[in-house]
Automatic annotation (TrEMBL):
Gene this protein is translated from: fbp
Similarity section: Belongs to the FBPase class 1 family.
Subunit structure, interactors included: Homotetramer.
Protein name in UniProt: Fructose-1,6-bisphosphatase class 1
UniProt xrefs under PANTHER family: FRUCTOSE-1,6-BISPHOSPHATASE-RELATED, SEDOHEPTULOSE-1,7-BISPHOSPHATASE, CHLOROPLASTIC
EC number of the protein: 3.1.3.11
Organism taxonomic ancestry: Bacteria, Pseudomonadati, Pseudomonadota, Gammaproteobacteria, Lysobacterales
Binding site for Mg(2+) 1: E94, D116, L118
Domain Fructose-1-6-bisphosphatase class 1 C-terminal, chain residue ranges per copy: 201-334
Amino acid sequence: MPSISLTRHLIEEQRLGHVTPDLRLLLEVVARACKRISVAVGKGALGDVLGEAGGDEASINVQGEAQKKLDVISNEILLEANAWGGHLAACASEEMEHSQQIPDAFPRGNYLLVFDPLDGSSNIDINASVGTIFSVLRCPEGVTAAEDHHFLQPGSSQVAAGYCLYGPSTMLVLTIGHGTHAFTLDREQGSFVLTKAHMRIPEQTREFAINMSNQRHWEAPTQAYVDDLLAGKDGARGKDFNMRWVAAMVGDVHRILTRGGIFIYPWDRKDPSKPGKLRLMYEANPMAMLVEQAGGAATTGRERILDIAPTSLHQRVPVFLGSKDEVDTATRYHLQHDSAAA
Ligand code: F6P
């Protein structure tokens, strides 16, 4: 069987009417940028890429987090690649306060690109997995100068979503609404090769992912749900669960797409002004689309993530995603708690 490259896969999808020529070319540009990021990440201590950006004065991003050099490098690679691509009206990045229109001097297209250039960046300095997450929306018709509010579309409007995982191998996982497919970077050839078509998440699982150090800050139904996971065979669930935490959402979601599980970043009381840690547009929406396209589910513990109407570019939400039956169970704990309290 000859191997199927990302390019060939997308051309076949175009023939089937699943993707427009413009979206296909835009995804190729994003994939090319991810290859460049993969090279930068792979240099590690041999390149001048580790540590914090900004030298002595740490540079702080719009999320209030210290930026790593690789956050900044990855953001620049994605911006630069897409400025010249000709398929975008504007892009928005987790690292930038506002969206950026494609400058007048450059060719413009009809899509909006949203990205987290380097997710899980606390893993950079320990040589563990990190990744790029992206989402593509249509620019509303008739809009010639896209602004932040044009991006505020529910996740169900995404026309494509994906991530690139920089781990022992570099993998691009992509959906254009017709299944979730995984491509592995062939470093010698420089091309992404289809290695798993139509990923499927088992509906049931015995594995969960959550940062347990926040346990005391969670709300009651999250506590009750996780208590029952921990009670294992001796508790209400009647089976033992294992726990894993990569501390980079791309790594945890990749494991779940590969062998099932539930990933949780719930609302917590540590900072009551933040309804969760993860960002709706840059993390929750693209991952929810990938997971649903692989037969899984994604909620906030109460509602489907892809149904949320965003109110701001950097909005945060609680996230429960992965194996369908397990996400449904976790959601039930929260909804039953709410109706008992009502
Ligand atoms: O974007 C935030 C992120 O790095 C995710 O990739 C990851 O799942 C999470 O934060 C890790 O959070 P914590 O540091 O609380 O474990």
